[in-house]
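Q: I'm writing up a methods section and want to include an example of the input and output format. Could you take the sequence below and give the corresponding predicted structure tokens, formatted cleanly so I can copy it straight into the document?
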Amino acid sequence: MVKLTRIYTRGGDKGRTSLGDGTRVAKQSLRVEAYGTVDEANAALGLARLHTAGDEDAMLARIQNDLFDLGADLCTPEGGRRGGANSRGALRIVAAQVKRLETEIDAMNAALAPLTSFVLPGGSPAASHLHLARTVTRRAERLACALAAAEPVNPEAIKYLNRLSDHLFVLGRRLNGNGAQDVLWRPGLTRDDKKSA
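A: Here is the clean output for your methods example:
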């Protein structure tokens, strides 16, 4: 159980912060960038939820909770500081969370017409916010992959981010009238050179 009795601690005033195992690192470290970007994606989902209800909102509520799990996972290094107790019991993303995303993607995608073009971010307010959350999720995935190239990272965390961006794309199409309101890319639409368009 988390208990926050004080919001500011002054501990980060010199540009360092504590990881889940107590290690102090620079705030611009790759690990902090990765879990900070997960937090940013979560905030974008909060905006999307202003425009959702029912099953779609329930899916996003579960995902927001998962993203806190994911932030806790990325915040605590594998093995931790000298294998400390705080890292051994660390909260980690598990395969079942990734599988749930895959199951939801498959169910939503079954009702959508196949795409004939790439989709531009837009359409309904909910879909627009989901496109924003999707792109932030992709950035979080790139940062988590960069971190994994430098030190051990839970592979399920990276899988989760990869599936989540797909999930948000498909959910955005669903919230665009099952694709009817999708804004499709028209290659070369605004070019002046008509011969090559």
